[in-house]
């Protein structure tokens, strides 16, 4: 490999030829001429037969070149980037490809991979050792925060909380990545037939963890107390170095270090010690004494973290030509997508750009070794100047990608003084790009989530098999949200544990879901809530459920923007975990993940998978409206806004659903590490290969590619695959998916811009997510660098006639950054350079000036504007989504029409200018003036529009909406309901409750016990009955139970009147109602009973033993009122004789004083004998009474 | 009217072991003349219910029941016209209506062959004339009309208040031209748990968005807030019926009077009237009664309507 690079450096081979050469290895042999970066001179494209000859001899090594190049650059930069976030490299074959290191650990490749570097290659042991040692030094450099850049150890890293889930255990590094690896004998020719040494690609080496896979070239810094500033994060590359099982014990020790690795564990300390020795040995060989920093052996970065940056000077760049060449070939590899992860390389380049100083520089390094310039023997980066020069070179080639980054990153780049110093031209382009950029990316928090609404069509009783199931589900819904609220309140408390806090409650709830039908109901609720809470950016909700209204909105509009930004900085995760974070479940997603884990219900998981799959299919095939190409740019712009928003919604939902589908589908297979033995793995593979996939993602991917909808399908597929277990990539089914994805990745050459090509940002999104996927711990390292020919078989027969989503500008920067928050690491890196901090904490120092606010105790005055916005939100919240869409559509249409009108600027302005200027104005001046006027008018119009149009439209729509609502008025059911009152009734009658209460008081007073001074006045009684009449006539507030009680109480009151039991206030002697008063009151009651009550009045109570008994106790007994009452009742048709007779009959059963019974008989016989009442009338009154009852029941 | 926490505490303090009689209520009214009878009665009732919940069990041991029954028999044996049962209830610090139920149940057990069903007992309590024993019927009736916290009459009054305030609330909503769905309409749609009214267009009250209103027609102390929140309001939230900013009870405050000042959406003139005028003034607010036991340092509001009413 080094030979290729060296022949490049010696200009024996042109860069273009080399790239062609590499690309051929990567793509099919029919590949078209590589598209060249814009900066390439035409001459670079000579295809020289000599070159071809020079390269053809190296043919078998082609695909090794890119990993070699990447690792070479990482090696070379190790002295410059000893601290700060490292750039993880996931290029296999690192050590194998080192110049002069003809041995390498066998990788999990097939036979083709065995072509190792011939021992005859020109190599220098000394030169080889230097970078190795440096690499080692760097790798073990205890730079704090180093591990940030790495990937989490166990697949899924636990977001911020740091808690570890049971299945996300630490991942043991497969390869030691330690100096042990090169210890394979160089003299040992690899035995290709030995499956242990050369297992099939991607398979996990068998044996006692012996067949180490190529290590990821990332600093295995152990978790240590030194990371005082950064949060403890697990990191798959870093951990248990101290317990790497050594496999090399059987292999003769020929490591360049000359140390045999003893079998068993080798601690990091030991390794470090070894490196130290090696380093000092090397230093002793150099003619000049070692500089002080090297005394300590390994270059320890200052712990203060305040390394001042060394100024970079273009004039002090050594070996420009060599750097230019390597930058060119590196850039070409990036441009051709030969590197696994575009953004990782950009991150690396920006690290070089912002390198602070070279550590452990030797004097000799600064002097180019004569004759070594064109070789790789001298270090590539001899100073910070070199690094910066190289970085700027690469950035120049990558300008196009840079120009699509967000505005903030562009600003930081454009303001970077080193960049300005090394390439004013690039700086100018960046500045222009910055000024033209509208890509303000804000990862603002999503609005607080809400509960899933009750949907009658799916949630009402008709959807359940039984009342019981319906009510069970009702309870479950409440329990689910209770659990959710508790999680929301407590999950950030230290020491709170999901399983301990909620596990048993969740399982109890799941236990009630017996019927399959209930499961599907619950799953629908679960899925809806998931989408609702987590769909928005990164799902890290600040306020989620019922949290206090945010402080920000209390402060008024002027401060709002600033404070929103502040909130964003405070609440947004500071780092997404380096440029290649492992898959995580941030924010609310954690709840749903933990819920699934705690529920540990097979049925639930199955229903959930079914439901998720269905929803994914549905959304994936959603016909996203394709707007017709519009004549007016402005209009189409407005249209695309809506399209983009809809696309983003669908895409984010799909990604979330797919992530959870992947999580649940692969949950049973997930383990912290791949199976330990080959046999085990084979048997697992045999088992797994017959399990049908939870969702036929391959078919969906193929469809997506065919229909040119990759931009929709691939991002969610990546989410799905990111949660796969270690075995998945080895299964034929998924392997073919990876092959498809790899091909797609290679085909997404950003510089290609032609008809029918995918839009730039669409490509960028796919490159970002695919690049991320290729760095997932469970994806084999060598998968990306598949052997030649593997991809030849790939074909996608796209339906080119149909313009798919891929060709539409559906992705904007906001979506890109939302899907790939790790791209934001670039900005953080640049920001940390500006802030002058070391990259110790991964950069991005928060500089926040505290703002004071008034205490929250007082009722905060809210702004009208904010409140109206909230009201509008709340309004839409309760309405079907179509309403919102309609309103937004109207707003957009009107907006676009307005823009159209403004565009008349162009026609009118020149005319106006011409009319205003004097006639003799020269034509050139006129045309300039016209142009300027058009420009200015457009600018002003646009400014005015941007300032006013939204508000205008909103006001219009608001007015329209409120007009409609007013016009609609209240519901007809609610309006005009008179509840039986007369038309003129003004509902001023006393409330029934008040009357019941009052009458109850009178009854209580009459029944006693009472104080001597207690009593009621006759006037009060009269008033009470009057009020009762009013209430019964105004039926506004009456309900049947109240009326029934009133009726009963009125009868009780009559009984007390008849028995003269009501204590009357007045002169002490009297204490009794006058007869006349009593009769008057009874008359009132009779009239109420007859005319006003609409419920049956229990008049028979008048003759109940208890009420008659009241009379029995009085002496002398006064019967006249009772007789009067009964007569009136009969006369008014309120009671019939037979009824009275029946009541009296039942009285005989009661035990009365003897004289009372006699009196009763003598008194009632004449009454009953009276001939006035013919029977028919009685029946009639009975009928009336029942009718009233029925009417009432109906009302 | 909004009570301060201190005022509420003072009232509650006066109600410790006070029998639930007309006389007690009269004394309370004399002590707190500025409070309406409805408020006082509601607080009284709630405090007394808390007390009964705490002590309920000890009155239902078989020993206690037996001893009460014997005391009753002895009492009416001496004088059937004396308020035996009522005095007994007051003496042992138990609600008269509930004491009447205990004795009635015990009486029926003794006199009937089969143990009495609940519905029979309820029916006899509603209409004591059905009680086979005339003396007991009078005793029970006396307990019921003298009990201001328990019993069928009190239940009816509470129910009536609840109904009346729903009607009042509906009238207010109509008067303010607010579009809403009521409970019956929602039930017809199949909702399993519904508040009294859902506003089809949300409104702002004191800077808070209101989506639904539930009229509870009782004084809102912290305890009842908590209970309602748990039993009902969260369920509305769980069905997305509620507002985002709904507060847990310990941070919440009751604002029934606010119904009077509802603000329609998109009407700037009304919105400009912030801060709200004193809720105690104005015609509408005086018709509604509300109480607020929690200090005003908690600015949040719940979307629940809470009424304890009086005209």
TrEMBL record, chain B:
Its main location: cytoplasm. It holds the Pfam family TPD. It comes from the Eukaryota. InterPro entries: CDIN1. Keywords: Cytoplasm, Nucleus. It is found in: Cytoplasm; Nucleus. This is CDAN1-interacting nuclease 1. It comes from Felis catus.
């Amino acid at each position: 490999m080094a030979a290729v690079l060296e022949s490049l450096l010696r200009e024996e081979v042109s860069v273009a030829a080399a790239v062609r050469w590499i690309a051929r290895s990567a793509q099919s042999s029919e590949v078209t001429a590589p598209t060249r970066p814009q900066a390439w001179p035409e001459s670079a494209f000579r295809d020289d037969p000599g070159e071809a000859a020079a390269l053809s001899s190296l043919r078998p090594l082609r695909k090794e070149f890119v990993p070699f190049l990447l690792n070479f650059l990482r090696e070379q930069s190790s002295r410059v980037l000893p601290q700060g976030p490292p750039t993880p490299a996931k290029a296999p074959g690192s050590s194998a490809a080192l110049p002069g290191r003809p041995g390498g650990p066998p990788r999990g490749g097939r036979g083709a991979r065995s072509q190792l570097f011939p021992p005859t290659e020109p190599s220098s042991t000394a030169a080889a050792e230097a970078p190795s040692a440096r690499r080692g030094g760097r790798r073990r450099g205890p730079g704090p925060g180093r591990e940030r850049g790495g990937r989490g150890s166990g697949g899924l890293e636990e977001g911020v909380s740091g808690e570890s889930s049971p299945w996300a255990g630490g991942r043991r590094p497969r390869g030691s990545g330690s100096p042990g690896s090169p210890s394979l004998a160089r003299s040992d020719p690899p035995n290709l037939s030995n499956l242990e040494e050369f297992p099939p690609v991607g398979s996990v080496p068998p044996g006692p963890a012996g067949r180490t896979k190529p290590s990821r070239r990332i600093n295995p810094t152990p978790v240590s107390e030194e990371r005082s500033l950064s949060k403890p994060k697990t990191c798959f590359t870093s951990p248990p170095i101290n317990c790497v099982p050594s496999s090399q014990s059987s292999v003769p020790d020929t490591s360049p270090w000359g140390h045999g690795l003893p079998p068993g564990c080798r601690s990091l300390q030991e390794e470090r010690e070894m490196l130290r020795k090696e380093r000092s040995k090397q230093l002793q060989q150099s003619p000049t004494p070692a500089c002080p920093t090297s005394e300590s052996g390994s270059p320890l970065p200052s712990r203060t973290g305040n390394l001042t940056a060394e100024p970079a000077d273009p004039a002090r760049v050594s070996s420009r030509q060599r750097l230019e060449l390597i930058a060119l070939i590196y850039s070409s590899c990036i441009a051709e997508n030969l590197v696994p992860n575009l953004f990782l390389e950009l991150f690396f380049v920006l690290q070089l750009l912002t390198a602070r100083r070279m550590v452990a520089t030797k004097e000799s390094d600064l002097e180019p070794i004569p004759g070594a310039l064109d070789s790789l023997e001298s270090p590539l980066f001899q100073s910070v100047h070199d690094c910066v020069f190289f970085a700027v070179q690469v950035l120049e080639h990558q300008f196009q990608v840079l120009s699509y980054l967000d505005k903030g990153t562009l600003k930081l780049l454009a303001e970077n003084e080193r960049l300005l110093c090394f390439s004013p031209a690039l700086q100018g382009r960046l500045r222009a790009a910055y000024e033209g950029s509208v890509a303000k990316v804000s990862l603002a928090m999503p609005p607080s989530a809400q509960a899933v609404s009750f949907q009658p069509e799916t949630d009402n009783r008709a959807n359940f098999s039984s009342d019981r199931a319906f009510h069970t589900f009702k309870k479950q819904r409440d329990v689910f949200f209770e659990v959710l609220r508790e999680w929301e309140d407590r999950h950030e408390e230290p020491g709170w544990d999901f399983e301990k806090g909620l596990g048993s409650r969740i399982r109890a709830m799941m236990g009630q879901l017996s019927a399959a039908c209930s499961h599907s109901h619950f799953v629908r609720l679960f899925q809806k809530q998931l989408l609702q809470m987590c769909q928005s950016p990164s799902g890290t909700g600040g306020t989620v459920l019922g949290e206090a209204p945010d402080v920000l909105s209390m402060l008024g509009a002027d401060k709002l923007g600033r404070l929103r930004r502040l909130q964003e900085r405070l609440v947004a995760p500071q780092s997404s975990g380096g440029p290649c974070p492992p898959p995580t479940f941030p924010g609310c997603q954690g709840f749903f993940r933990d819920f699934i884990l705690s529920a540990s219900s097979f049925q639930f998981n199955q229903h959930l998978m079914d439901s998720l799959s269905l929803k994914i299919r549905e959304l994936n095939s959603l016909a996203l409206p394709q707007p017709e190409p519009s004549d007016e740019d402005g209009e189409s712009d407005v249209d695309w806004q809506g399209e983009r928003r809809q696309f983003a919604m669908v895409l984010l939902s799909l990604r979330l659903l797919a992530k959870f589908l992947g999580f649940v589908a692969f949950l049973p297979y997930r383990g912290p590490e791949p199976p330990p033995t080959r046999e085990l793995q084979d048997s697992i593979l045999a088992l797994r290969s017959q399990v049908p996939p939870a969702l036929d993602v391959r078919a969906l991917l193929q469809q997506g590619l065919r229909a040119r909808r990759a931009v929709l399908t691939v991002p969610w597929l990546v989410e799905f695959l990111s949660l796969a277990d270690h075995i998945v990539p080895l299964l034929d089914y998924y392997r073919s998916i990876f092959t498809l994805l790899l091909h797609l990745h290679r085909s997404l050459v950003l510089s290609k811009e032609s008809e029918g090509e995918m839009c730039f940002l669409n490509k960028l999104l796919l490159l970002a997510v695919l690049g991320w996927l290729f760095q997932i711990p469970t994806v084999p390292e060598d998968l990306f660098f598949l052997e030649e020919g593997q991809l030849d078989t790939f074909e996608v027969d796209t339906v080119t006639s149909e313009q798919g989503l891929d060709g539409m500008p559906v992705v904007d920067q906001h979506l890109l950054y939302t899907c790939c928050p790790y791209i934001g690491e670039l900005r953080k890196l640049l920001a940390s350079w500006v802030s002058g901090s070391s990259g110790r904490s991964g950069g991005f120092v928060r500089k926040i000036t505290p703002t004071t606010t008034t205490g929250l105790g007082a009722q905060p005055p809210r702004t009208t504007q904010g409140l109206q916005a909230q009201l509008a939100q709340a309004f839409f919240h309760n309405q079907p989504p179509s309403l919102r869409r309609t309103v937004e559509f109207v707003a957009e249409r009107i907006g676009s029409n307005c823009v159209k009108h403004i565009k008349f600027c162009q026609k009118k302005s020149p005319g106006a200018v011409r009319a205003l200027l004097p006639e003799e104005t020269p034509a050139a001046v006129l045309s300039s003036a016209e142009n300027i006027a058009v420009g200015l008018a457009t600018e002003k119009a646009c400014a005015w529009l941007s300032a006013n149009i939204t508000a205008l439209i909103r006001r219009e729509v608001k007015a329209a909406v409120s007009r409609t609502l007013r016009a609609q008025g209240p519901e007809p059911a609610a309006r005009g309901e008179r509840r039986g009152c007369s038309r003129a009734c003004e509902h001023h009658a006393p409330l029934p409750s008040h009357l019941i209460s009052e009458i109850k008081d009178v009854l209580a007073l009459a029944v006693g016990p009472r104080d001597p001074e207690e009593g009621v006045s006759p006037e009060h009684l009269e008033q009470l009955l009057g009020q009762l009449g009013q209430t019964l006539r105004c039926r506004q507030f009456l309900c049947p139970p109240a009326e029934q009680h009133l009726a009963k109480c009125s009868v009780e009151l009559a009984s007390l009147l008849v028995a003269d039991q009501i204590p009357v206030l007045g002169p002490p002697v009297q204490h009794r109602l006058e007869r006349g008063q009593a009769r008057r009151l009874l008359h009132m009651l009779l009239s109420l009973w007859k005319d006003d009550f609409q419920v049956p009045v229990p008049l028979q109570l008048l003759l109940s033993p208890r009420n008659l008994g009241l009379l029995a106790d009085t002496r002398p007994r006064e019967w006249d009122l009772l007789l009067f009452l009964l007569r009136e009742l009969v006369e008014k048709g309120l009671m019939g004789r037979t009824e009275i007779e029946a009541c009296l009959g039942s009285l005989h059963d009661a035990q009365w004083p003897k004289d009372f019974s006699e009196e009763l008989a003598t008194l009632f016989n004449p009454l009953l004998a009276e001939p006035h009442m013919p029977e028919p009338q009685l029946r009639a009154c009975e009928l009336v009474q029942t009718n009233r009852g029925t009417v009432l029941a109906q009302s | 009217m909004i009570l301060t926490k201190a005022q509420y505490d003072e009232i509650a303090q006066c109600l410790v072991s006070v029998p639930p009689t007309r006389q007690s209520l009269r004394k309370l009214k004399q002590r707190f003349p500025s409070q309406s009878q409805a408020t006082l009665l509601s607080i009284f009732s709630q405090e007394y219910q808390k007390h009964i919940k705490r002590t309920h069990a000890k009155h239902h041991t078989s020993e206690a029941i037996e001893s009460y029954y014997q005391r009753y028999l002895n009492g009416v044996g001496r004088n059937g016209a004396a308020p035996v049962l009522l005095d007994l209830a007051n003496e042992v610090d138990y609600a008269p209506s509930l004491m009447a139920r205990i004795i009635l149940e015990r009486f029926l057990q003794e006199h009937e062959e089969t143990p009495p069903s609940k519905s029979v007992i309820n029916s006899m309590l509603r209409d004591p004339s059905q009680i086979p024993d005339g003396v007991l019927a009078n005793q029970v009736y006396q307990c019921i009309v003298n009990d201001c916290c328990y019993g069928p009459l009190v239940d009816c009054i509470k129910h009536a208040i609840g109904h009346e305030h729903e009607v009042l609330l509906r009238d207010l909503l109509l008067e303010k031209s607010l579009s809403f769905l009521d409970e019956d309409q929602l039930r017809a749609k199949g909702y399993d748990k519904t508040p009294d009214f859902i506003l089809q267009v949300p409104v702002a009250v004191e800077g808070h968005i209101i989506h639904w209103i539930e009229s509870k027609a009782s004084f809102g102390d912290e305890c009842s807030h908590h209970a309602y929140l748990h039993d009902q309001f969260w369920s509305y939230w769980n069905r997305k019926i509620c507002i985002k900013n709904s507060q847990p009870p310990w941070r919440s405050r009751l604002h029934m009077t606010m119904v009077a000042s509802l603000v329609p959406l998109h009407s700037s003139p009304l919105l400009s009237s912030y801060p709200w005028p004193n809720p105690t003034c104005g015609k509408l607010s005086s018709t509604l009664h509300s109480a607020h036991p929690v200090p005003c340092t908690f600015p949040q509001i719940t979307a629940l309507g809470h009424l304890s009413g009086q005209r």
